[in-house]
Write a structure and sequence with these properties.
DNA binding, 51% helix, alpha+beta, DNA-binding, DNA-binding protein, 3-stranded antiparallel beta sheet
């Protein structure tokens, strides 16, 4: 029996989500997600004309950035 997450999707490593779903998952606006996605080069897959984000890859990248955030901040951000 499959387990489902809070978004009602199968909880597996191959789940692809839209930018809107990713933003909701992270609790941020879609515009903020777009900025972060470009800034930190979130993993993405183009499916036809749509861009989708591998859910587990996205969560892994966010966890990495959050853990190592000082590597990603410019000197101006730290002052």
């Amino acid at each position: 029996m499959k387990q489902f997450d809070e978004m009602g999707e199968a909880n597996d490593s191959m789940t692809l989500i839209s930018a809107s779903q990713a933003a909701k998952l992270l609790g941020i606006s879609r515009a903020t997600f777009k900025q972060l996605s470009d800034m930190y080069d979130f993993p993405r897959i183009k499916v036809g004309r749509a861009i989708r984000f591998p859910k587990q890859g996205l969560l892994d990248k966010v966890d990495y950035v959050a853990t190592n955030y000082r590597e990603f901040l410019s000197l101006d951000d730290l002052l």
